[in-house]
Structure formats: C-alpha cells, structure tokens
Design goal:
The complex is a heterotetramer, with 2 copies of chain A (339 residues) and 2 copies of chain B (340 residues).
Chain A: H1 2-20, H2 45-52, E1 60-63, H3 68-74, H4 78-85, E2 109-111, H5 119-131, E3 138-143, H6 150-161, E4 166-172, E5 175-176, E6 179-180, H7 181-184, E7 200-204, H8 209-224, E8 230-235, H9 253-261, H10 264-274, H11 279-302, H12 324-327
Parallel strand pairs in A: 1-2, 1-3, 3-4, 4-8, 7-8
Antiparallel strand pairs in A: 5-6
Helix pairs in contact in A: 1-2, 1-3, 1-11, 2-3, 2-8, 4-11, 5-6
Chain B: H1 2-9, E1 11-12, H2 14-28, E2 32-36, H3 52-60, E3 61-63, H4 68-80, E4 84-91, H5 99-106, H6 109-112, E5 122-127, H7 142-147, E6 152-154, H8 159-171, E7 176-181, E8 198-199, E9 213-216, E10 221-225, H9 228-242, E11 247-251, E12 254-256, H10 260-270, E13 272-280, H11 285-296, E14 303-309, H12 318-324, H13 328-338
Parallel strand pairs in B: 2-3, 2-4, 4-5, 5-7, 6-7, 10-11, 10-13, 13-14
Antiparallel strand pairs in B: 1-8, 6-12, 9-11
Classes of the chains: A alpha/beta (339), B alpha/beta (340).
The structure holds thiamine diphosphate (TPP) (2 copies) and magnesium ion (2 copies).
C-alpha cells in the first residue's frame, strides 16, 4: 500500500511538471508534451491502494476521470500507461485513449470519463464472474459527485438483485469540481443509499489507509464469498484543483488547508514506523518508487508518436472491408493551422 | 427425403428465424446469454425471445430491472470480460435513457483502448411504426445509430436475412445493433405483409455485413431502402411494372458497414435514385445515400428523391400516421417523379 | 373519490369494449376504432383518486403509460380526452398524442410513455412553483417497475436537495408487464429509497381509498407547506393484463384471483355505507358517472378525424417559415397498402 | 460621442457576448433562470455563465447535482409551467445520460400535445475538439441533434452571432439547443482563432433562426459550414484566393431551421460544393447538405465533396486528432478537388 501510495503521489507530481511544461507562462491546454485535460488525485491515494490491495489480476476495476492512483494500485503497466498519457504509439491504447481512457486488459482495468458510467460495466464484469462460476470480483470507483447519477443508482439495484460480486467505492473529496457536496445532495453519508436496495453499505470517515484497507477487506471478501455487493464510501481529500488549470477561485483557502493538513501518506508512514518499519526502509520504498516513475516517464517521452494513419484503425476488432470511405482522403487533416 | 425437403422449404416468420439463430448460438457457446425486459417468461414483447427462457432457464435468459443504463452497461462489461451477451432494448425509442452506455462505452471502448479490448455484444431492439403507437414508440432511428461510429447496424427485412444476420452478429467480435421491425416479425396480433416470411435453412449460416441485397433488378430507377420499406418498395415496383417502369430495389440490410458499391453500381446503371426510409428525413439515412450518389456518381445521376418521415414526431391518429410514414403510393410517386 | 373511482372503472370498461371492436375474432392491434396500445388501470383507482383529491387545478400531475384513472381524478376534460384516445381532431392533442400522451394544460396534466420520465418534469413544475412563490405542488405517478430507473432516482435527490413541493406516488401492482417485483429488486417497500436522499417516505400497504387519501393528505400538505417532497408507495392491484391483448401466460391464475379479490371500489362503498351513505346515493353517483362516460364516448365517436395535413403542424409553437421541405410532397403518404 | 463610438466598436469574446445576452434577458424577465453544473460559482467550465451567479444569486443561477436527466427534465417541467429556463449540459458528449428528456419530452411535448403546451427552454452545451480531450469530450454531434424533430439547433461562430442568437433563443417559444464551440469562446486557457471576437452592440438584438450568413462571396466554389470551421474555411478561402480561386463561404448558423435557400442559391451560382463539418461524416450534416444540393440543384451541380470526421471516435494523441478533425489544408484540398 505504502508503495502504491508514494508511487501515485510522486507520479502525479512528475506528470504535473511535465504537463505544465510548454503551458508557462500562459496556460494553453493544447500546448506542451501532455495533451488534453489532466485530473490529478493527490489526497485520494489511500482509497486506491487500500481497496486494490485485495484484488487479483483477474478482478476487474473501472475508474472514473481521476484514475491514476487506482491504476497504479491495480498494477496497470506504468510505462505503457505513461506513454498513453503522453499520447505515444506504445501507450496502452496506442495514444487513442489518453488519461481518462486507460485500458489494461492484463489486469482488467478500464475507465470511463462519463460520470458514473463505469459502474454498469463493473456490474457486467461481476455478472460474468458469477456466470462463469469464478470467484473474481469487480470494483467500480466513483466520486461523491457521481452518486446522484442514475447510472450509479441503477447499478446498485442490479448488483443487489442479482447478488453480484461487486464493490462500489465512492471517493468523497467533498467537491465535484466547484460544487460542494451539501449543495447537490442532502445525504451526508452516501453509503446510506445502499439501504434502499437491500445492500450492505459502509463509510470510512477518513482516509487512514489501514482503515480503508480493513473496510475493503470486508467488502471484497463479501463479494468473493458470494455474499453480494457492497457500497463503500471513503472520505478522501482534494489537495489540488479539479483539473490542472483550475484556479479554485470558488474554494475557500481554509478548505484547501484542511484538505492538505491530513495527509494519508504521512499517516501511513507513521503507522508503519510504529510497527517497526524504519525510516530507512520507508525511504528505500520511496526511492525505488521514484526511480520506477522517473524511468517510466523517461521511457514514455522517448516513445514515438503514432502515425496519423493509425487514426483509422481500431474502430472495430473485426473491420469491414471495402467502401468508398477507405479510398477517400478528403478528411485527412494535417493541421488546423489557425490556432 | 421428406425431411430434407421440409428443411429446405421450411417457411418461418422473421421472429422465429431470429430466435432460432439465438437458440443455436446459445447451444453452441455457453458464453452467449440474453438479457432484457420481459424476455424470460414473456419471450419478448415482440416475440424476439419466444421459448428461449424455457429452453435455457432464467440464468441465461434473464429478465432485468427496467434500468437500461445498468443492464446495457452490464452487457458491455460482460462482453469485455469475454462473454457474448445479447441485450434487448425493448423499443429503440427508449435509447435516450441508456445512450451513454451504447455510444460512449459499447461503441467506443474498442477504439479508446487501441484495440486491446473489444465488445462482442448484440443489442437487439424493436423499431418502427404503422400501428399508431405515437411519438415515443414508433421510431426507427436508423440514422441516429448509424451516425455514431463504433457500432455495426443491422436491419433485416426477411426471415432468411434475420437468421443469417443474427448468426453473424453473435459471432462478430464487435458491438452490433440489431434492429428488427415489429411489423415484419409475423406477430399474431400485428399482421405482416407477405414478404418477410421466407424459407429458412435449419442449419446455421451467416450473412456477411456490408452486402446489400438486390431484391429486384431493374434498369429505369434505383430504389434504395431497408426494413419494412423493402416490402413497400417491392409492392411499388410491381405496380410500376404494369406501367412499364422497371425498378431496381436494393435492400441495404446493414447500415454500418454500408454497401456503397452496390448503391453506386445501381445508380450508375439507372441514373435515377429514390431513397426510402422510415426514419426522419433530414440528417439521416436518405441524406447519406443521396450524398453518396452525388459525391461519387454525379455524372450518371439524373434525378434523386428522398421519401422519409418529414421531420415531425410520429403522430397517433391513423390518418396522421399514414401521412408521415411513407406508403407504397409515395414510393410510386417518387419513382415516377425522378423519371420526368 | 368514489365518483372518480367508479368513473375510471366504468370508463375503462367502455374503452375496452370499443378497443376490442374490430379486433375480434383475431386481435389486430391496428384494427378497430381505437388505435395503438391500450393500458388499462382497473385496480389502480384508489391511488389516482386518493391522491388527486388533494390537488387543485394549478397543481401539476405527470402520469405514466397507464394514465386514465389519474387523469379522471385530476379533472382532465373527459370528452376531449376520449376524443384523443379515439384519435379525433377535437381531442386534447388534436389526435397527435393518444392514450399515453394526454396533455391538459387547464389542469396541468401531462404524461410520458417512457418509464419514470414523467418524474423530472414534475420536479420542474415544483421548482417553478417554488421560484414563483406559489403554494402549488406537483405529483409524479409511476409504477413499482419504474423505481429502478435512473430518472426516478435522480429526481428524488433533486427534489430533496432543492426542498421542492413534489410528491412521488408509486403504484405498486406487483408486476411490470411479466416481471414480478421480486425478480427485479430486493426491496419490498419502495418508499425506503427515500431515506437515501433524506426524504420522507411512506407506504400504504393496501389500496383502501381512505388510507390512501390520508397518506396523500400528509404528503401533499407537506409539499404545500414548504416542507419538501415525499415518496409515497401505494399497493394497488392489476386486475387485467399489462395492455390489451396481453394473454398473461406468465401469470399464475391465483395471482389474478388475489388481485381481483380485493376491490378498492367495493371497499370504499362499504366504508361510505358505514358512514351513512345509502345504496341509492351510491347508485346515483355511479349512474351519473356512467352517463357522463357514455356521453363522452358517444361524443368522441362523432368527432371528425384530423385531416392528414395536420400532421405537419404543431412541431413548433413558433414554426420557422420557408425551406424546401414545405414545398416537398414526396413524403405525403396516403396508405401503406400492404398490411 | 466617445461612448457611442465605444459601444459601436466594442469587441467581445464569444463567451462574453453569450453571457451578456443571458444577463440582459434575466434582467428583463424574472422567468428566465439558468441551471447547470458549476455555473453558480465557477461561471461555467467554458465561461458560459461568467459572473452571472454573482449578479443574480444562486436561486436564479443554480448549481445542480450531476444528474442530467433530472435537471434537464426539470427544465422541461419548468418551461411547461411558463418559465424560461436555460439549462446547461456541460459537454454535448454527455447527451447520452439524458437524451430521453431532451428528445422525447423537451422536443416532442409540443407536438404530442397538439400545441396545447410548449417548451420555451434553451439547452446550452459545449461542443468540439482540437485540444486532445479524446473520444468522450470532443464531439460536436451536430447531426445527432438536428436529425431528431422538435428542437431548434443553433451553432454560433462569432461573438455577434452568439449574442443575437441567444436573445432569439431565450425569447423563442420552442426548445432551442444552443451549441457553442469551446475553441471559439475566447478562453484564456484555450486560444481562439481571430475570427470569433467581433464588435458586439450593447443593446439586445435578435438574429432570426434559419438565416445563413454569407461570410464571403465567391463565384467558383461554395463552402457550406458552421461553428469553428467557418474560421477554417475563411482561412482556406484566403489561401485559395492567392491562387485565383474565388470561394464563397456560407455559415449555416442554425441547423434547424436550415436555410436551404441560401445553400441552393449559392450552389446554383458556383456549381461546386464543399461541405465542411466537425461531426461524423456519415448520416450527418455533410450528408444532408450534399443531399439537398443533389435533390434540388442537380442540374447546376458539377461536383460535391464532404470534409468531416471520418467515422471514427475522436482519438487523443495530437497527430491522430489532427488527422481526423478537418483542417484548413483539408478544406483547401477539397475546394481544389471539386474544381477539377
Ligand atoms: C454525465 C457527466 N456529467 C458531467 C461530467 C463532467 N464532470 C467531470 S468530473 C465532474 C465532477 C466529478 O465530481 P466527483 O464525482 O466528486 O469526482 P472528483 O472529481 O471529485 O474526484 C464533472 C461534473 C461528466 N464527465 N459526465
Ligand atoms: C425506459 C423504458 N423502458 C421500458 C419501457 C416499456 N414498458 C412500458 S410499461 C413497462 C412496465 C412498467 O411497469 P410498472 O412501472 O410497474 O407499471 P405498471 O405497468 O405495472 O402500471 C415497461 C417495461 C418503457 N416504456 N420505457
Ligand atoms: Mg468529488
Ligand atoms: Mg407495476
């Protein structure tokens, strides 16, 4: 866990640097080495690590728009994930997906950038496991802002009535972009919604990694043993803006301070020290994580960009042949030019 | 001998043919399963699953809550996990409650993953009007689905095609939207025209996607259409033949992939094109076919007309619905018009 | 209430007769005087009447695919509603809407034939009332099969967090077409879902009209007094198939018997007798209701069908002018011909 | 005097112009209110509501839960109750979670009620790519909305049009889908091309729906386009002018209603048509415009080409996105091609 958490934190610090390069002094979203939006998860690490610690490669995870800490904890290939984020040919998706669309079938990891829409596919993975009589489980991660979305609520019911091996993990960081939780729902403890579907619900009121780990152990265990789904909410923190470039004008200074004050990584380090892990050992974990990250980023940056023709591939696994579209070249854009 | 003959000449309704393909694939492959509303005991409101629940049980022919986002999305997840779900959206008109799963996940995950995952799923759905079910239960929405990339779109017009296209759909490694027209299913309570009931081989067979079917050869005018309107076009062609007008009728059968060659070859031959569709006229199927002809066969093209729903929601009362859904007369009139 | 209930029951008996005319001996959905599908509500009357008894014309009601008993209780114009169902020019919607799309702005009644999709517009009517500072309320009716649909669940949250004057009325008739409730959800008492949104929920376990009336009084009162929304579930009965033509092969005979055994209309009559209403008085109410219904049906059947050109009108309140579409006549269908 | 001059010459970004229209209408009419995600304090992720929350407070500029079906549907209900909601769908790409409210209620209730109710609502939404936001955040979906009847569809390309079309939209008694291209808004963090920032009168004014704007007259080739691609087409026309090719550029401005006369007049004049669109090519906007020309101006038509997204989801990496989103070069090439 500690390893995953420091890896995720350092990884995103490095991504942030890279992302901002070429976007200074004026922030231009389409400049610099990393394309598109970037949602960083500093303050969320305990949830990804604490939950995924119980998962095997054949367990499925779906993540939302803020996926890195979860992907790392699930064991997604760090180099190919980084290459994907940099939009390179050897990326997980050959540069077609990007940071919100990380897919790694080797560890059954997938994303959707649409709020709550990772839930139904996770339920489907649980359904497949049940049908095939394996003890694999599926976990859907989402933010607290996503719990008002129909796709999530419907998924609770479907998972419950079918008694599927699914865990829904709500990362409650108090904010959905600029909207504080209390502005969009009256419910303080999102896991209460489980009751209305006769499902087990539980909330961890802070992000002490060990407590998250234990709650997740119960939830994943329940799923693996055929005892049905769980809705698990975890209080996490949002140490940064919603996405890179978010000036957070809407957010009180104190709130940022409060979120930064309690750092789950430091707390876990303290816990570990109490259990006899030495500072040297912790440093070693951290350094080796940093090396791995640096290496992945260096590697990714050396990778070639995809050839423009690759844009036409992979629409279908089983592509149709023929048709005038194939011959047509009028759509082959080279450059927008005016921006 | 008698048996062979029977097999060869066995006539099925479109519903029976479609269900037979599903049953055969389910017998072959444990990964194939079916879910939808009212499929288990009812057998599908439009008989798209008749008797399947009995043969395969409720685990493989699953009734689901009325929550299309969750169960269609569950189909996507199960497909990505390697199963081959067939998922039914009861009426295509309900797509709006679940479109995100359909077009942003089912249709795009293959591409967004650079091909590292794929989604071998069939989304079946009932389409079409002609029985006065009004604006929220009578649409075909062919163009809506065909416009968005990443899903194959299949529209059978006969029992023979329904079975073959269903086998292909289930075996295909990509998401396939299989749109069956209610009026063609051969339901006891909604009489079909005579065309869709055809001989159907008992053994499994595939009909490749992207191959239009020339239902009738002709030299004067090309009519390109699909679904129910194949039969209306054939009726129009018969009537026109009496006046010495020789109409070629093309059944597209699949919209994605689209058999552009067949369309263009026919247009180059006849020079006159009528496109007939039961979807809304603008920004849809008729637009696409007419545009293709203009882009690629302009020199041969002497006239084009589109016959489709005139960009109004589908009204309830009979005279109103009859007005907006293209009839045999309308096709005839359009064919005559492009010859002038 | 009694009046509304006997009107609704008799009305639908008459519609049934009319509907089946021309569909005998072979049922052909496109034959006979009434077009399209027909969903009858025998066994649901107590819910429509008990709730709408508390509503004024300026209160809004949205109904689902099974709307007649609600429309009648809300005071929708019976003659024009009937003409609409017969597809006539003087119908509420000039024959464009039909039985699943009854709109009567005079009493703020609307429908949607899509499961649960009447809920958000009802919430919007409640929002308008709140913004305009009136004490009008809005009521959304739905079936128990609709409570697993995202549009309903999202609406609970939105109504609750905005504290809107809205009542959701779930008519639980045990069935969603052929699917028994327990096959699609684990929750027995749908009103429990209110908890997950910090909303008041209540269930009436039977359809004694007086009990429904009293529960609805509380719910509507709460809304009218600015105390927020309520989720009210009412056990009703399905005395018939889902729609006309449904042979109910999936439904055990005993279940039909059980549903028919407890008739809310008879029970209300008994209650009324206990309160001193005489049989003569009840008969009088019934007869006058029957007369009104007969009259409405006779009137409707005399009404002209709409002219086919009317199909092009009413797409927009403020229609654009010009364009080739207006001149085009190639789409003017006269007759399908082959069916 | 100085003031008049300033007013007349006041340049605004598209975002400022759009917001100004909303603010002016909200000042005039208490029934106008705005709801959407992150509109109150953030002012809209793409600055579609800047400062409105401050001026009008959270009751009239409402943040809503991330539950598009409920709040868009609430807009429909409020509009039917006589208010004039402006409702924001943050990215058009999210339509799939709420399409039923949009196309089955908002767009159809007027017709299904025979005109007895109407839905004076504006649905605003951000569209478009060019900043590598990939397949679920870069679409325009122009054709998807224009295909389904009952909603007007507006796509401004300049600040002047953005304001005028917004006034018209809010005052219109029908549902209007107002699609603003992110790249045109003039956001600090996403530089616009130079075209969209224009002089904008301070007073309210309306631009009627259904009137295309001839951005540049020309005699050789007609380019029909909208949104961002108006500016790309203008850049292409400039480059082509150097080679003596005289390009006419038509900005459709509204897709529903569509100014078919303007399209046909121009095609009849030049005989050569290029249609440019940032939506998927097939079954969409380019199909419709090409089909119109073929149906109604075939005699004058000498060549047609379509330039649009080649029926693939929008990829992430820069070279891939550049490949699929039509650029100035692609427009130039198509114009040259139709002259051959
Ligand atoms: C259906 C849909 N609506 C809106 C959005 C835009 N959006 C992306 S992230 C986000 C906020 C999510 O908040 P939360 O779920 O709490 O996750 P967090 O960002 O806090 O981790 C929104 C509104 C979206 N992607 N999909
Ligand atoms: C989104 C959507 N899915 C499916 C349907 C088809 N459908 C119409 S009524 C119905 C069953 C509804 O059951 P319930 O809500 O319990 O109401 P009841 O018919 O029992 O009154 C179904 C599935 C629909 N209209 N809309
Ligand atoms: Mg959050
Ligand atoms: Mg029911």
């Amino acid at each position: 866990m500690y390893d995953d958490m420091v890896t995720a934190r350092y990884y995103e610090e490095r991504l942030q640097e890279e992302y901002l390069e070429g976007k200074q002094p004026a922030f231009d979203i389409s400049a610099g080495p990393i394309p598109g939006e970037l949602h960083l998860a500093a303050g969320h690490e305990a949830s990804g690590a604490g939950v995924c610690a119980h998962l095997r490669d054949d367990d499925t995870v779906t993540a939302p728009h803020r996926p890195h800490h979860i992907a790392i904890a699930k064991g997604v290939d760090l180099k190919r994930m980084t290459a994907e984020i940099f939009g390179r040919e050897t990326g997980l998706s050959k540069g077609k997906g990007g940071h919100m669309h990380l897919f790694d079938p080797d560890v059954n990891f997938a994303c959707s950038g649409i709020i709550a829409q990772g839930c139904p596919p996770a339920v489907g993975a649980g359904l497949a496991a049940k049908k095939r009589n394996t003890d694999a489980v599926a976990v859907a991660f989402l933010g607290e802002g996503a719990i008002d979305q129909g796709g999530f609520l419907e998924s609770l019911n479907f998972a419950s009535v079918q008694n599927l091996p699914v865990v829904f993990v709500v990362e409650d960081n108090d904010w959905a972009i600029s909207m504080p939780k209390e502005r969009v729902t009256d419910v303080r403890d999102g896991s209460k919604r489980a009751d209305g579907f006769e499902m087990h619900g539980e909330r961890v009121d802070h992000d002490d990694a060990v407590d998250v780990y234990e709650a997740a152990e119960r939830a994943v265990g329940r799923a693996r043993d055929g005892n049905g789904p769980t809705l698990l909410e975890v209080q996490v923190h949002r140490r940064m803006g919603h996405f890179m470039g978010d000036a957070e004008a809407y957010r009180p200074e104190e709130d940022v301070e409060r979120h930064k004050a309690r750092d789950s990584i430091e707390r876990l380090a303290e816990d570990l020290r109490k259990h006899g892990i030495t500072d040297d050992e912790l440093d070693e974990i951290r350094e080796s994580a940093e090396n791995r990250v640096d290496h992945a980023i260096d590697w990714a940056k050396e990778q070639p960009e995809p050839a423009s023709d690759a844009a036409y591939e992979d629409v279908f696994a089983n592509p149709p042949t023929g048709g005038v579209d194939e011959a047509s070249s009028t759509t082959a854009a080279t450059d927008g030019g005016e921006e | 001998m008698a048996q062979t003959q029977e097999a060869a000449e066995r006539e099925l309704t479109m519903s029976r043919a479609m269900v037979e393909a599903v049953a055969q694939e389910m017998r072959e492959d444990d990964d194939v399963f079916l879910m939808g509303e009212d499929v288990a005991d009812y057998g599908g409101i439009f008989s798209s699953a008749t008797d399947l629940g009995e043969e395969f049980g409720h685990d493989r022919v699953m009734d689901v809550p009325i929550s299309e986002t969750s169960y269609i999305g569950a189909g996507v997840g199960a497909a990505q996990a390697g199963m081959r779900p067939i998922v039914e959206l009861m009426f295509v008109d309900f797509f709006g409650v679940a479109m995100d799963q359909i077009y942003n996940n089912m249709a795009k995950n293959t591409y967004m993953s650079g091909g590292s995952v794929n989604v071998p799923m069939v989304l079946t759905t009932a389409v079409g009007g002609t029985y006065n079910d009004a604006a929220q239960h009578s649409q075909t929405l062919y163009g809506t689905f065909a416009h968005l990339p990443g899903m194959k779109v299949v529209v059978p017009s006969t029992a023979y095609d329904a079975k073959g296209l269903m086998h292909t759909a289930i075996r295909d490694d990509d998401p396939v939207v299989y749109m069956f027209h209610k009026r063609l299913m051969g339901l006891g309570w909604m009489p079909s025209p005579s065309g869709p009931k055809t001989d159907v081989p008992e053994d499994a067979y595939e009909i490749p996607f992207g191959e239009a079917d020339v239902k009738r050869e002709g030299s004067d005018v090309t009519v390109v259409t699909l679904g129910l309107h194949v039969h209306r076009a054939m009726a129009a062609a018969d009537a026109l033949a009496d006046d010495g007008i020789d109409t070629e009728v093309l059944d597209l059968r699949t919209l994605v992939p689209l058999d552009t060659d067949a369309v263009l070859d026919s247009v180059r031959k006849t020079g006159r094109l009528v496109v007939v569709d039961e979807d809304y006229r603008s920004f849809g199927v008729t637009s696409e076919i007419a545009a293709l002809a203009a882009e690629h066969a302009l020199d041969d093209l002497e006239a084009v007309q589109r016959v489709a729903i005139p960009d109004v929601p589908i009204p309830y009362a009979r005279p109103l619905e009859d007005e907006v859904i293209p009839g045999v007369d309308d096709i005839e009139a359009a064919v005559r018009a492009v010859r002038e």
